[in-house]
Design a protein that fits this description.
Strand content of chain B: under 5%
Distance between the termini of chain B: 36 Å
CATH topology of the largest domain in chain A: Rossmann fold
Largest sheet of chain A: 7 strands, mixed
CATH class of the largest domain in chain A: Alpha Beta
Strand content of chain A: 15-25%
Helix content of chain A: 40-55%
Distance between the termini of chain A: 106 Å
Number of helices of chain A: 14
Mean pLDDT of chain B: 88
Helix content of chain B: over 70%
Mean pLDDT of chain A: 90
Largest sheet of chain B: 2 strands, antiparallel
Number of strands of chain B: 2
Order of helices and strands of chain B: HHHHHEHHHHHEHHHHH
Oligomer: heterodimer
Low-confidence stretches of chain B: none
CATH superfamily of the largest domain in chain A: Response regulator
């Protein structure tokens, strides 16, 4: 009788232990869900799809190593169609229906901002992908921007362009500022104006143009008529192409040309413009120069190139994808370091830690922007016609600024 | 004792259900999703007052919506007015613009009027793009206020507000449809010259119609900045807003006040479901395909199909 009771007790104990083990395994296997909205269609789809490829590479890399906190990582995302009105619905669904554990932002200022009130209400950590000065309005202490614009994003963005100009001999005296009538370009131009004033440059031309402009020749002619020493352009991909072509057609004579042209970072546009790019000094965030070989970036780009084939995205992915990978790296490292999904702990860690990522060391400042700006100013050199492969390696975009990442000296003036 | 109309009973039930919904449901997703459907509904009902009842096609709906949104932004920035007053102000400004559009009908009809409304949208977009006080091309941020009455969240309050506005819009549209004024508008739609000869004050009726349409669209746009918190001209003057405002009544049926309501609920719900289950871009495709199908197979919309079905049964 005693033996039967003992057997029953042992069996019950074993069953309970087994059940507890099963529950434990099930919990361990439950994925950590990271939710976000991304522009997979609409105006920003090209960049958004590239970012998604990078994020999926990060997910696979992490899962191969056993996931986060021993749990696999799952990305839950929806296409915002580049429509800000879709964003609030997407983030509330992610949080309330899909019950994601962590969230990251979409790509681009006007698709990041609509998520902010929802994120702030829930007090979530919010790694953000390429929003210019979004947190200036919200002052949210759990917002972390991966774009290396710096603590004063709108001014820091163009600081390098003007610093470079003022190092030249003879120093330039006049500047022309031209920008598209749209969010990023206007902010960049406002920063450029401030930097020009700080440098003591006289602004001889300061105008905007509608984004739908197709003929840029009259604009370049009007700029040329003011004979500026340097020309700062804040533009989006289609107008960047238009401005470069018009500058070549008109034969724009100036000492420094470029600054804030979006699009010149993309391989397809680089191939399209070819030698017309030579001499232009423009912003960038990562280029394949020897000074920027951060740990893991080559391996990441090799995987990206493979994954990007046939998907209609930038084949080399130098501009946005490494940062899309890095903002998840930061989040992943914070989760591993704090061994927690507690957003308060994560935010605290992200404020005080310097992270090692494929885009180098990342340290956030108080406002969630990079503590120190690393907006590069690069100069196009020796670009040959009709050759896409030339942009895969070094030597075509020489880093001039900041000095610690410099890979060559400036060729000055642009054209005289 | 006068009998209470079933419409008002239904309206009271809808409002009570909405209030109960905010109490029972905690999932905020439903409030944001339904908000967008109701926004589409108000736009559709407004478009139908001119497009369906009067027969004048307006391609510039997004402009009224955006002016409503930017009126709210400007007055919030300048005076910090509460949302209900911002909505009233948006209705007044957009009503005035609607009145102006009404005068266009003196000279323009058919396709020329439609093109003029499109041109007006472009002119207004250019104006807003260059008005730096409301952010210009850079866009404007609106911080959601902390106060949300007795509701648990701001999105619940916006949902309830939108529901009230939608019910009021539908009530106005219904009233117009069955009133003397509505019959006048129908006469204009059928034959404007004949209506004029029969003594219908066509200009006055058209002015009333465009003013109400403009005011309603402004009302739909005024809470939008508080919903998205960041508005730029490109997203406010979005073509999709205008396309939806036309597609919803066309699919539901333009001749009856219930048409745009059915169309908006059907198309809007489908869009919200497809957006999170299949793809956001498919929304546009779905609207396009439905529009083509309805225009070619059932030009009177769902209401027309139902009416036809009942007429056949009666016969």
């Amino acid at each position: 009788m005693v033996s039967t009771a003992r057997t029953w007790f042992v069996r019950t104990l074993c069953a309970a232990a087994l059940a507890a083990g099963m529950v434990g395994i099930a919990a361990a296997q439950q994925p950590i869900k990271i939710g976000f909205s991304m522009a997979l269609t609409g105006g920003l789809a090209g960049a958004g799809k590239g970012a998604l490829i990078a994020m999926e590479i990060w997910r696979d890399d992490v899962n191969k190593k056993g996931g986060l906190l021993g749990r696999p990582v799952q990305l839950v995302y929806y296409d915002d169609a580049t429509q800000p009105a879709n964003v609030p619905g997407i983030y509330t669904k992610l949080l309330e229906v899909d019950k994601v554990d962590l969230v990251v932002s979409a790509y681009g200022t006007n698709l990041i901002a609509p998520a902010m009130p929802i994120i702030m209400r829930k007090k979530l950590v919010f790694p953000s992908l390429f929003g210019l000065g979004v947190n200036e309005e919200f002052n949210y202490d759990r917002y972390f921007q991966i774009m290396p614009s710096g603590p004063d994003p709108k001014v820091d963005w163009t600081r390098g362009f003007f610093a470079l100009a003022m190092e030249q001999n003879p120093k330039p005296r006049t500047v022309a500022i031209v920008a598209a009538d749209a969010e990023f370009a206007l902010n960049a131009a406002a920063g450029a104006r401030k930097n020009a004033q700080n440098a003591g440059l006289k602004i001889v031309y300061d105008k905007t143009y509608p984004p739908a402009t197709t003929d840029y020749t009259p604009i370049v002619r009007a700029i040329q008529a003011t004979n500026p020493d340097i020309v700062f352009v804040g533009s989006y991909p289609p107008d960047s192409v238009g401005m470069v072509k018009a500058a070549n057609e008109v034969g724009l004579k100036t000492k420094l040309f470029g600054g804030g042209m979006v699009g010149l970072q993309f391989a397809a546009i680089q191939k399209n413009l070819g030698p017309m790019l030579n001499g232009i000094v423009n912003y960038d965030f990562w280029v394949p120069e020897p000074t920027l070989k951060f740990s893991g970036v080559e391996e990441f780009l090799a995987k990206y190139r493979e994954a990007a084939k046939g998907k209609g995205v930038d084949p080399y992915g130098h501009y946005l994808p490494p940062y899309a990978y890095a903002y998840l790296q930061v989040l992943g490292q914070a989760v591993e370091a704090t061994k927690s999904l507690d957003h308060g702990k994560l935010a605290e860690h992200m404020h005080k830690t310097e992270y090692d990522t494929v885009v180098g060391k990342v340290k956030f400042g108080k406002n969630g922007e990079w503590a120190r700006s690393r907006v590069l100013q690069v100069q196009f050199r020796d670009v040959q016609p009709d050759n896409l492969e030339q942009f895969a390696g070094p030597g075509k975009r020489i880093v001039l600024y900041p000095k610690e990442w410099k890979s060559g000296d400036i060729v000055y003036p642009y054209k005289q | 004792m006068s009998k209470i109309s079933p419409f008002w009973v239904s309206a009271a039930v809808v409002l009570a259900a909405g209030l109960a919904f905010t109490e029972i449901v905690e999932n905020q997703y439903y409030f944001t999703a339904i908000y967008l459907i109701l926004q589409g509904l108000i736009m559709a009902v407004a478009w139908n007052i001119l497009g369906g009842f009067t027969g004048y096609v307006n391609f510039g709906s997004a402009a009224f919506f955006a002016v409503g949104a930017y009126t709210a932004i400007a007055l919030d920035k300048a005076l910090g007015l509460p949302l209900p007053l911002l909505i009233v102000a948006a209705a007044a400004i957009c009503g005035l613009i609607g009145l102006g559009v009404g005068y266009l009908t003196l000279r323009l009809k058919g396709v020329y009027f439609a093109i003029a409304t499109l041109a007006m949208a472009i002119v207004l977009e250019t104006f807003i793009t260059n008005w730096s006080y409301v952010g210009g091309a850079r866009g404007a941020y609106i911080l959601t206020p902390d106060k949300h009455l007795w509701f648990d969240s701001y999105s619940e309050m916006l949902f309830m507000l939108m529901l009230v506005l939608a019910v009021v819009s539908v009530a106005i549209s219904r009233k117009l449809n069955f009133s003397r004024l509505g019959r006048g508008l129908a006469a204009i739609r059928d034959d404007e010259v004949a209506a004029e000869c029969a003594g219908v004050p066509t200009l006055r009726l058209k002015l009333v119609s465009t003013t109400i349409m403009g005011a309603m669209m402004g009302v739909a746009g005024a809470p939008y900045p508080f919903f998205v918190t960041y508005v730029d001209p490109l997203s406010a003057f979005n073509l999709f807003v205008a396309v939806n405002a036309i597609a919803m009544p066309m699919i539901g049926g333009t001749a009856h006040w219930i048409g745009p309501v059915i169309g908006a609920l059907l198309v809007g719900s489908m869009q919200e479901i497809v957006k999170v289950n299949i793809s956001s871009e498919l929304n546009i495709l779905i609207v396009g395909v439905m529009l083509v199908l309805f225009i070619s197979l059932a030009p009177q919309g769902i209401v027309g199909l139902v009416q036809k079905h009942f007429l056949k049964r009666k016969a």
